[in-house]
């Protein structure tokens, strides 16, 4: 690592860079606006969603008994379908057709980007652990997991290759219930509550769209799309989301040297175990030989498992390498434009959209500066060229819209 600095430090943005970028026209020059509202303005559903979807929100969970239960489909995309078993910490992605090369590309880029997130000690955006790849002609994996074969035969062509990664846990049941209550059409709510697919709830963060609506008739919690206007309505920390997306994108561009094509940013859960053991600093005041274990006497009750809300990045099957030059920047701009609208848009009218863009730009450029420290001036200017590329594309779209 070139600098020895943790990339997370870029969350502390520097005002000097902001002033510089305002002069260059890359961000809006108006002063920051405080668009937050009092929590007393929120109705109960919105208030609870605000609490549960905020970073590091904790929800107690029950431990699952490990068994040889069935694998179920928990997600799908262009590259294939994803399967997991209740209580397991891993997920298996398989191609629906014989697109084994796309899955291998997913594996290589996932492993590469995950390694760099770790090298830079960047954990503001989580990336699933990338475990291993199984070629289609390797029989041992499916022999060890016969119930996986039972689950996938109607979805995928067998024999199939497989990519084994850490599973991103779905958001807690209470979050799912609240999302249905708030955003689903009234006559569809009962069906949505009982649809098994809605247990696999991840929330896509669309910082570049304000098209979110309530009363949706085509409603699914599997990859639920939450647009900027909905994020603002829930009073989530949208600037923190934009900063984290900016840093993650800078890492994928300038550390991993990829275009980040097709990657997704989602809110999901991760689990951790908290020990309830006595605090060693307090033992000096405890009566000697006193029992300090759980009240039940059961060892398992000494630990509490909780889920925490996290921002994750996933899906690397379309990612391509880039050259560190203007051609590479053009490729990265093109990739950003064809992705779903995870990246904030420039040149928007509302203060909220302008402030989200500003937070993204500052974070992206600050992170890129840290990553590229020591490079020559031509290379150091490439991240700003990427931002200018996004602005130029938006200008063209706006001209086309009024012509």
What does this structure look like?
- By secondary structure, the chain is an alpha+beta fold.
- The protein folds into two domains: about 5-60 and about 175-265 and about 315-400, no CATH class; about 65-165, 2-Layer Sandwich (Phosphorylase Kinase, domain 1), CATH 3.30.200.
- The chain is about 40% helix and about 15% strand.
- The chain is built from 13 helices and ten strands.
- The strands form two sheets. It has a five-stranded mixed β-sheet. The protein has a five-stranded antiparallel β-sheet with strand order 2-3-4-6-5, with helices on both faces.
- This is Zinc finger protein-domain-containing protein.
- Pfam families: DUF3669.
Shape, please? globular
Question: How many strands, what sense, and barrel or not for the largest sheet?
Answer: 5 strands, mixed
* Weakly predicted, low-confidence segments: none
How large, in whole angstroms, is the Cα Rg? 23 Å
* Tally of separate helices: 13
What is the terminal-to-terminal distance?
48 Å
The fraction of residues in strands falls at: 15-25%
The percent range for helix content is 25-40%
What is the total tally of β strands? 10
Calculate the mean pLDDT score and round it: 88
**What is the strand arrangement across the widest sheet?**
1-10-9-7-8
- The secondary-structure element order is HHEEEEHEHHEHHEEHHEEHHHH
Organism: Chaetomidium leptoderma
Domain DUF3669: 311-372
Pfam family, one: DUF3669
InterPro entries: Znf_prot_DUF3669
Please describe the structure with a list of short key phrases separated by commas or semicolons.
alpha+beta; 2 domains; 403 residues; 15% strand; Phosphorylase Kinase, domain 1; 5-stranded mixed sheet
């Amino acid at each position: 690592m070139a600098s020895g600095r943790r990339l997370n430090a870029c969350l502390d943005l520097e005002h000097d860079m902001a002033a510089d970028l305002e002069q260059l026209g890359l961000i809006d020059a108006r002063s920051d606006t405080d668009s937050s509202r009092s929590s007393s303005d929120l109705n109960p559903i919105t208030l609870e969603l605000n609490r549960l979807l905020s970073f590091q929100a904790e929800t107690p969970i029950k431990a699952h008994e490990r068994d040889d239960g069935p694998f179920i489909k928990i997600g799908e995309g262009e590259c294939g379908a994803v399967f997991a078993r209740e209580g397991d910490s891993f997920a298996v992605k398989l191609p629906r057709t014989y697109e084994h090369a796309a899955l291998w590309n997913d594996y290589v880029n996932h492993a590469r980007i995950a390694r760099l997130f770790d090298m830079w000690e960047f954990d503001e955006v989580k990336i699933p652990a990338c475990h291993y790849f199984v070629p289609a002609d390797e029989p041992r994996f499916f022999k060890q997991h016969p119930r996986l074969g039972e689950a996938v035969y109607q979805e995928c062509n067998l024999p199939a290759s497989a990519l084994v990664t850490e599973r991103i846990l779905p958001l807690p049941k209470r979050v799912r219930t609240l999302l249905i209550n708030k955003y689903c059409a009234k006559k569809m709510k009962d069906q949505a509550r009982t649809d098994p697919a809605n247990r696999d709830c991840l929330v896509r963060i669309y910082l570049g769209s304000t098209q979110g609506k309530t009363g949706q008739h085509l409603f699914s919690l599997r990859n639920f799309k939450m647009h900027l206007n909905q994020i603002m309505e829930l009073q989530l920390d949208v600037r923190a989301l934009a900063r984290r997306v900016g840093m993650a994108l800078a890492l994928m561009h300038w550390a991993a040297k990829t275009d980040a094509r097709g990657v997704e940013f989602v809110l999901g859960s991760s689990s951790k175990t908290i020990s309830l053991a006595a605090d060693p600093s307090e033992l000096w005041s405890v009566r000697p030989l006193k029992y300090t274990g759980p009240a039940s006497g059961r060892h398992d009750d000494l630990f509490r498992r909780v889920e925490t809300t996290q921002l994750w990045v996933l899906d690397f099957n379309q990612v391509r390498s880039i050259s560190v030059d203007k051609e590479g920047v053009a490729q990265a701009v093109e990739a950003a434009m064809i992705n779903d609208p995870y990246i904030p848009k420039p040149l928007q009218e509302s203060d909220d959209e302008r402030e989200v863009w500003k937070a993204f730009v500052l974070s992206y450029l600050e992170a890129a500066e840290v990553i590229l420290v020591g490079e020559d001036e031509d290379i150091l200017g490439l991240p700003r060229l990427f931002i200018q590329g996004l602005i130029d594309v938006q200008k063209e779209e706006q001209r086309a819209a009024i012509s």
